[in-house]
Write a structure and sequence with these properties.
- This protein is an alpha/beta fold.
- It has a single domain, classed as Aldolase class I (TIM Barrel, Alpha-Beta Barrel).
- Helix content is 44%, strand content 17%.
- Strands 1-2-3-4-5-6-7-8 form an 8-stranded parallel beta barrel, surrounded by 7 helices.
- Helix 1 links the parallel strand 1 and strand 2.
- Helix 5 packs across helix 6 and helix 6 crosses helix 7.
- The radius of gyration is 16 Å and the shape is globular.
Amino acid sequence: MNVSKYIDHTVLKAETKEVDVKRYCSEAKEHSFFSVCVNSSYVELVAKELKNSDVKVTAVVGFPLGASTSETKAFETKDAIKKGANEIDMVINVGALKDKRFDYVLNDIKAVVDAADKKAIVKVIIEASLLNFDEKKKACHLAKEAKADFVKTSTGFSTGGATIEDIKLMRGIVGSELGVKASGGIRDYETAIKMINAGASRLGCSASVSIVTGAKENNSTGY
């Protein structure tokens, strides 16, 4: 299996420098990754570096806590799209979900979907490691109701990343209508394949080059 087109090549650490972002863009073009995922301050640079390539630009919004206001998330979304983002990965307000303030969570997601205005794909990060079973289900239903395009497991900055169980649960809830993005802790080819086989249609990875290198080394497996 060609995993490259599943991968959002991700560089989000606070200490990220321009040279790091440029390297990730170069790697993304070389290995034909789906997108490069960055904090919004780097969107303009990434759009410039990826110009005339097939690699998309993904910006995170409300990252990593999800606790900024809906208005702030909407502004960040519009600004990122204006600067060249094709996809938006937004973080839900986890505390509001746990408070069962479901209308707030729904409207928070809708604010980003409306701000994107079909000019960019919207992925909803539910931060599954902080949620119980029922909360995970509810978050997926709310993302679906808000007409987002994807649900995503994790920011990679919390207590855990993607699990096979969460991918299966999320895919079971959203069906074929939404994409499912596995993110956090995917560092090798075998794990990437397991996530895809469980139902992931996109992978958020920082170890992307190692993953595709592993794929080449494991061609005999039949993937």
